[in-house]
Design goal:
This protein is α/β, with parallel strands linked by helices. Helix content is 39%, strand content 21%. The chain contains 15 helices and 17 strands. The protein has helices at 54-66, 103-116, 121-137, 151-164, 190-205, 228-241, 253-263, 267-273, 291-300, 308-314, 321-326, 345-361, 369-372, 381-396, 430-440; strands at 14-25, 28-39, 45-50, 69-71, 76-80, 82-88, 140-146, 167-171, 173-174, 214-220, 244-249, 281-285, 303-306, 330-333, 411-415, 446-451, 454-455. The protein is globular. The structure holds zinc ion (ZN). Residues 86, 88, 248, 284, 336, 339 line the site of zinc ion (ZN).
């Protein structure tokens, strides 16, 4: 808990009084019981005081008088907002569809025809408004988005996130390889893809009122969709601009082998050779990364977006999550809308636990126990919560996911709700509360959401 005497240094904008839970480290819960959190005009946390302390009571009185104090009920908890590292915004209309197809068929038959429709700006605007509202209602305060190849629709997504106050990292998707991209949905050339990417970066950087809420992301869809020439251009642009990078890496047998055959090296090694692997790179999935790839990821400080629901349908394997965490890879969670059929990071947090347990126990009862098990693979609910919040923030290199002075106040209130499956009891320990939230909380249990101190 931070209790600085510097509250007077600048006037906080608003204050929150109640019990906050967060996870500073994997498997570690910190309880900030009956604290007052003071938030400045820039959305950053100015101070956290015990509510009953002199500073705490003075601040509470001041904000009560000003009408800027929010007091939680005894059965409500303040939690950091969820961080979603992997969303395909244009795929929102096909959530839950065609999940019985293999990845390469799913892309060509359903996904590319849908994404091509975002040439229509009105269609894009309607879908993106619905998506951003839906994610915020699920407590997701930060999202890393793939848009489509269309610059106007991608700009619209940035406008909508800014207007709705959702922290967003957004990429105009680049894909130019005729071998894998259909003629109706691909960049005309590597040069035009780079030019449109530069135009989107410039647009976001000059967006009025942005103040760091929206960031541009360099987004080669994945190696199979891009020519070497395009990957080289985008790698150079990443070095030049310092922007975040996102792409897919070793998701399925098909993708993993495709890159091995085309490039002669693994997906992660190829991305590194193109200059696309850095501290601000997020690779979706990474289910098939080998030991050398893990060394590469750790060396670069790159992160993995673990999408455990999507992986059930498209990845052919369970991510060796525990192994990655033990080696120090940054990992956060992603819904992979619409590869995964839920917009909720909490759904993915519980699925991350389930997937890790299945990897540990093995799934084929016809095999002997020793053959089917992969020892020490499990994570617990608290570690899944850490992945969904703190660790997602670390992966993005952003001060989010924790209640700490200097961190952004991105938060949600969770509690019992009529019609919800969550049942918190007065005698529950904080550990029990957190377990119940990870396993049972849904959209109806999330009553309030703030991004950068602003209620959304
Ligand atoms: Zn994806």
């Amino acid at each position: 808990m931070s209790d600085r005497n510097s509250t007077a240094a600048r006037a906080s904008d608003r204050a929150f009084l109640g019990t906050a839970l967060h996870a500073p480290a994997p498997g570690r819960l910190e309880v900030l019981r009956d604290v007052i959190v003071l938030v400045g005009p820039d959305g950053a946390i100015d101070a956290i005081h015990p509510g009953a302390s002199g500073d705490g009571m003075a601040a509470a009185a001041r904000h009560r008088t000003a009408g800027t104090l929010r007091t939680l009920e005894p059965d409500q908890y303040l939690l950091p907002g969820m961080v979603d590292l992997h969303v395909h915004a244009p795929q929102w209309p096909q959530l839950g569809l065609a999940l019985d197809e293999p990845l390469e068929v799913w892309l060509q038959k359903y996904t590319f025809p849908l994404e091509a429709r975002y040439a229509d700006l009105d269609f894009a605007t309607a879908v993106y408004e619905s998506l951003v509202d839906g994610l915020l209602a699920n407590g997701t305060t930060t999202v890393m988005y793939y848009a489509s190849i269309h610059l106007p629709a991608t700009r619209a997504l940035a406008d909508i996130c800014l207007r709705r106050s959702q922290r967003a990292l957004i990429g105009r998707v680049s894909m130019d390889d005729p071998a894998q991209c259909p003629p109706y949905y691909r960049d005309a050339s590597a040069a035009s893809a780079e030019a449109d990417t530069r135009a989107f970066i410039a647009y976001v950087q000059s967006l009025p009122g942005n103040r760091g809420l929206i960031s541009p992301v360099i987004t080669p869809r994945f190696i199979p969709s891009c020519t070497d020439g395009l990957l080289q251009r985008l790698g150079s642009l990443a070095q030049e601009s310092g922007c975040h990078v996102q792409t897919h890496c070793s998701e399925s047998d098909w993708q993993h082998r495709y890159v091995l055959e085309r490039c002669g090296i693994s997906d992660a090694a190829a991305l590194e050779s193109f200059g696309l692997l850095g501290r601000r790179t997020i690779l979706a999935h990474g289910n098939f990364v080998g030991d050398d790839d893990v060394t590469r990821l750790v060396g670069a400080g790159a992160g993995i977006a673990h999408c455990p629901l999507s992986n059930v349908y498209f990845s052919d394997a369970v991510l060796p999550l525990r192994r990655l965490l033990d080696r120090g890879v940054h990992v956060g969670l992603g819904t992979d809308i619409a590869g995964g059929a839920s917009p909720s990071i909490l759904d993915n947090a519980r699925q991350a636990v389930i997937a890790s347990r299945l990897l540990e126990s093995g799934v084929d009862a016809a095999l002997e126990r020793g053959q089917r098990r992969r020892e020490a693979s499990r994570i617990d609910a608290l570690t899944a919560f850490w992945l969904a919040t703190t660790s997602g923030g670390i992966a993005l290199d952003l001060p989010i996911g924790l209640f700490r002075v200097g961190y952004q106040f991105d938060a949600m209130v969770v509690g019992n709700a009529a019609g919800g499956n969550l049942r918190l009891e007065a005698g529950d320990s904080p550990q029990q509360v957190l377990q119940k939230i990870v396993y049972n909380a849904g959209r109806s249990n999330i009553s309030d959401v703030w991004v950068a101190g602003r209620r959304v």
